[in-house]
């Protein structure tokens, strides 16, 4: 059985994050939480890679469509469609264009509750409603409404895996096993060793 400290998750800094020179800030936020970077690469994804990434979950299109519609209704706004699949397809089309617009940085992070911690630090999908103190809440002013008005994807800097299962699939999609590095950080002794052995000289 895998120890919780070995949990891994995927993060992609999207083209807007690269263009705004926020790579270091984003990495710093995750490192400060105690997570360990085990994979990192810069590249320009293809449309096929982006589509395959989002459709690794067969229910993604409908789920994201429902989420988009609900977000509109919660704000008292009328969505462009009430069909979740159509709404999801619109989101996917925007993401294909958005994520292939320039380079992205994909990274794999490891540590206890890595998926949940990364998502908490990153903030909600819609920057407008993300809490201050999260990456999206601190650095982005975009919203679903603005994105729809401009017929584009929401610019929210980062993709972060939504669950442990999703993370496993996404990591396999973007990284080969040889691109992931197993090593020990000195700080892991403080974070994980049961009795803090060896601190005193």
TrEMBL record:
What InterPro entries does the record point to? NDK-like_dom, NDK-like_dom_sf
Cofactor(s) in the UniProt record = Mg(2+)
Q: What is its EC number?
A: 2.7.4.6
Sorted alphabetically, which Pfam families does this protein's record hold? Answer: NDK
Keywords linked to the UniProt accession:
Kinase, Transferase
Q: Which domain of life is it from?
A: Bacteria
Chain ranges of the Nucleoside diphosphate kinase-like domain = 6-182
A molecular-function term among this protein's GO annotations: nucleoside diphosphate kinase activity
Family of the protein in this entry: Belongs to the NDK family.
Please report the name of this protein according to its UniProt entry.
nucleoside-diphosphate kinase
Organism whose genome encodes this protein:
Candidatus Kaiserbacteria bacterium RIFCSPLOWO2_12_FULL_50_28
